[in-house]
Amino acid sequence: MASCGLDFGTSNTTLGVPGGNGPSLARLEHDDVTIPSAIFFAWNGDALIGRAAVSAYVDGAPGRLMRSLKSALGGSLIDETTQIGRKRLRFTEVIARYIALVKARAEADGGAALDSVVHGRPVHFVDSDPDGDRKAEDALRGIAESIGFKHVSFQFEPIAAALDYERQVRAEEIALVVDIGGGTSDFSLVRLSPDAAKRNDRASDVLANDGVRVGGVDFDRELSLASVMPHLGYRSPMKRAGVDAPAGYFHDLATWASINRLYSQKILQQVKEIRRDSARPDLIGRLLRVLESQRGHSLAIDVERAKIALSDAQTAHIALDWLADGLQADASRPQFIASSARLTQRITDSVVSCLNQAGLGADKVDALFLTGGTTRIPHVREAILAMAPRARVVEGDTFGSVGMGLTIEAARRYG
């Protein structure tokens, strides 16, 4: 039996195992050590995960794609069921199926059964809700135990990233660890040094932790609402003066974890009634076609690609010609910055809170350690760097630092 560190992320997952030569990440999809947190249920009951799951959906295979599974933790969605073929599964069962397949792949890669896990977790699963935090961790613990882990413990994801970074530290320093992933933004102020790295008890070196439930999927949503959803009738007028089309359908369609809620006959009938009463039935008709063809995830994938493209370009285009000849949504970096300004502010507010908890000024931060895919968004990155302008900027492994740190912690806790 063996231990592991598991970073089950909103967008991607890694699993690491300790070894004689140090921690290493398992190959989870061919030679890739990262795997998208996605599962596709074919109508015959088979399940695909990762890139294969997304490809099956994009290629039109009959079935159900689910992404951003972690987003269900801490909210009411975790208690709900979803239709999978002829059965309804609880979201805990869906997550368990995904993690079980990841665990099996890691065991096959390493040639040993895994019975102990240090699970990564955000500082806050839910903002300002201790009960929601406890419920989310309890759900994740129950899932881990249900798939065969006998020993389950947790570590904050930014602390795990700090443990990975500490391996390259040559003198004592204070690091602000910034981990902005798909679902949450997490921050830790940690005192690091080569000598401290040898100690098992690091509680006194953790100066502060904070976080906010803002991540890449939230930036996807805001970009979608700003650039794509107006082409489907978002904020379009109804025949009744002064009334717009109900916004909830568009928010759900722009939110990864909520898309599948829209694929029901009840929702389709409601949207048909909205089209009947709309002053722009052509636009609402496009929304209806997206739902009838269950293309919501395809739309979200295209928006995510546009978001990534805007990191290097001033404009990006999202093809919608499958809805109307020649139709495309145009996204620009200024538009993206403006539409996500509230999210960026919540992130920087959380950094300030972390510094205040530690009683430190920004000038006391020696290093900014950045990990998580959302740190690549230019205006988010610039806002973070401006918080500690004198600090040395250190680039972590965008998708692997947390998993490596959790694996280091697993070796300490379980031997």
Question: Could you characterize what this model shows?
Answer:
By secondary structure, the chain is of the alpha+beta class. The chain folds into three domains: 169 residues, ATPase, nucleotide binding domain (Nucleotidyltransferase, domain 5), CATH 3.30.420.40; 97 residues, ATPase, nucleotide binding domain (Nucleotidyltransferase, domain 5); 123 residues, no CATH class. Helices cover 39% and strands 23% of the residues. The chain is built from 13 helices and 18 strands. The strands form five sheets. Strands 1, 2, 3, 4, 10 and 11 form a six-stranded mixed β-sheet that branches. It has a five-stranded mixed β-sheet with strand order 14-13-12-17-18, sandwiched between helices. The protein has a three-stranded antiparallel β-sheet with strand order 6-5-7, sandwiched between helices. Strand 10, helix 3 and strand 11 form a beta-alpha-beta unit. Helix 5 packs across helix 9. The longest helix is centred in the N-terminal third of the chain and has 20 residues. The radius of gyration is 22 Å and the shape is globular. The chain starts with a strand and ends with a helix. The model has no long low-confidence stretch (mean pLDDT 94).
Assigned CATH class of the largest domain: Alpha Beta
What do we call the CATH topology of the largest domain?
Nucleotidyltransferase, domain 5
Mean pLDDT: 94
CA-CA gap between termini? 11 Å
Total strands: 18
Give the uncertain stretches in residue-range form.
none
> Which class of secondary structure composition applies to the elements?
alpha+beta
Give the CATH superfamily of the largest domain.
Answer: ATPase, nucleotide binding domain
Evaluate the radius of gyration: 22 Å
Major pleated sheet: 6 strands, mixed
